[in-house]
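Quick one:
INPUT:
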């Protein structure tokens, strides 16, 4: 019987060469070959290093932010779930791949039975025994038309997709931590600005109140000075709340409390980020993990068509075992006690009310859906990068104009204060200069935050944030997980 089992295995291996999976053709990228050009974009430059290969420690210069990102990569729960999903899909792939091999099991059993005299053919009570030891293969399907291999390929591509999903989760996490940190720092700067402005308003109100008491300043001047103080107090409460909420958001992203030994943060005006090369749209197909995940899902859907096609053809399953059978333990392994059984089974679909045809149609529709999702992921990536490139050029211009506007308001404030102190202008002009300067300084901080977050989002859109150091390899190994036998 051992020779029969060996012959069966060889035959199965020979017959398992057929596959009905359609040849995979990568869809054409539904975007232009170049990023948009125009007044909102800076001239394209050659990239010495792809953004996806630039490590986040190299891109982010602030040591405090680097420590927060490192903390999040260790403790964030979403990233932990993504990593566990990889293990789960690897296990599912191994379950599906195991169907390609016969399941061999050994079984030993024994029984003793007493038959009463009135039920015995001899008229006397009898005790019978039976012992057996078998080695067998149960319901092994010969994969003649590649149904099992198609399902295995589908599970493998789903596993690859989960790997890319983890990369995408990490890239999003790095960008989210960076944006949350920058927002936190901007709100703290706005809070400090408001505190300083409130102190200036209160001093101005105090001086105006004295002038009113001696009849120099009118009641209208005093009322206007008070409105400035109350407005600054409203802003103070607002930014105090926002700073606290920013800390809570950052704590959630980190998965733990903000480290107490965090280095002193750098101001928003410092050189916080590295310059990013954009490259070409075609590079996104190999850099963006969400695009790669969508393509693996498309390949999985393509493999499911092969399984649906194979269901139209006959399937053969084999059950076989060989062993020994004896009425007593002593004779279990003696000559002449051998036993075997061989039970092949063939299943030929004849009538199923169109179920198989509908299953095939469903698989093809799912593939078309995945093609559309793959193309949409490319279009989304192209749009995100294009928006980032437009923001880069225009924010540089906007920030420079805003700095000039702040400088002009500072000159206006100094002149208005001097003229008010010597009695040339009224208090209204001075208060207007204070409000204009405060508003311009707020806008400068807000615009700087918007510029930084747009650069972080561009880094994310280009696939950056996977590596810690730029010298590390950003590629994810596209190898099937090892089959675990035990």
């Amino acid at each position: 019987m051992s020779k029969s089992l060996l012959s069966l295995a060889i035959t199965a291996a020979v017959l398992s060469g057929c596959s009905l999976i359609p040849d995979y053709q990568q869809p054409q990228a539904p975007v232009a070959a170049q990023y948009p050009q125009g007044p909102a974009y800076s001239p394209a430059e050659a990239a010495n290093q792809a953004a996806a290969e630039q490590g986040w420690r190299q891109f982010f210069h602030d040591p405090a932010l680097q420590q927060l990102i490192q903390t999040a990569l260790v403790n964030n729960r979403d990233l932990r779930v993504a990593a566990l999903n990889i293990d789960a899909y690897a296990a599912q792939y191994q379950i599906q791949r195991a169907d390609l091999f016969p399941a061999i099991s050994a079984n030993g059993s024994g029984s003793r039975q007493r038959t009463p005299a009135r039920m015995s053919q001899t008229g006397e009570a009898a005790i019978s025994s039976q012992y057996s030891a078998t080695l067998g293969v149960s319901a092994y399907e010969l994969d003649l038309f590649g149904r099992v291999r198609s399902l295995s390929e589908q599970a493998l591509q789903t596993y690859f997709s989960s790997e890319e999903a983890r990369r995408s989760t990490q890239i999003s996490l790095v960008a989210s931590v960076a944006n949350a940190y920058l927002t936190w720092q901007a709100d703290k700067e706005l809070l400090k600005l408001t505190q300083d402005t409130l102190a200036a308003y209160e001093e101005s109100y105090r001086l105006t109140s004295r002038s009113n008491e001696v009849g120099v300043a009118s009641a209208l001047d005093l009322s206007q000075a008070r409105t400035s103080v109350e407005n600054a107090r409203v802003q103070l409460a607002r930014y105090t709340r926002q700073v606290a909420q920013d800390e809570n958001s950052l704590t959630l992203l980190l998965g733990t409390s903000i480290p107490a030994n965090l280095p002193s943060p750098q101001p928003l005006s410092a050189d916080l980020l590295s310059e990013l090369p954009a490259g070409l749209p075609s590079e996104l197909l190999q850099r963006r993990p969400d695009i790669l995940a969508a393509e693996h899902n498309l390949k999985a859907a393509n493999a499911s068509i092969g399984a649906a096609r194979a269901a139209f053809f006959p399937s053969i399953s084999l059950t076989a075992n060989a062993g020994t059978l004896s009425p007593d333990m002593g004779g279990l392994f003696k000559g002449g006690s051998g036993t075997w059984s061989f039970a092949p089974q063939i299943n030929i679909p004849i009538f199923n009310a169109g179920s198989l045809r509908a299953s095939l149609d469903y698989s093809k529709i799912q593939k078309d859906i995945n093609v559309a999702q793959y193309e949409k992921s490319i279009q989304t990536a192209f749009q995100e990068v294009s928006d980032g490139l437009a923001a880069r050029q225009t924010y540089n211009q906007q920030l420079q104009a805003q700095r000039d506007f702040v400088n002009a308001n500072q000159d206006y404030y100094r002149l208005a204060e001097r003229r008010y102190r010597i009695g040339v202008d009224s208090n209204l002009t001075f208060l207007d200069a204070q409000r204009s300067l405060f508003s311009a300084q707020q806008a400068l901080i807000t615009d700087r935050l918007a510029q930084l977050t747009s650069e972080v989002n561009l880094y994310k859109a280009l696939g950056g944030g996977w590596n810690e150091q730029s010298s590390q390899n950003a590629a994810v190994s596209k190898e099937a997980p090892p089959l675990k036998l035990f």
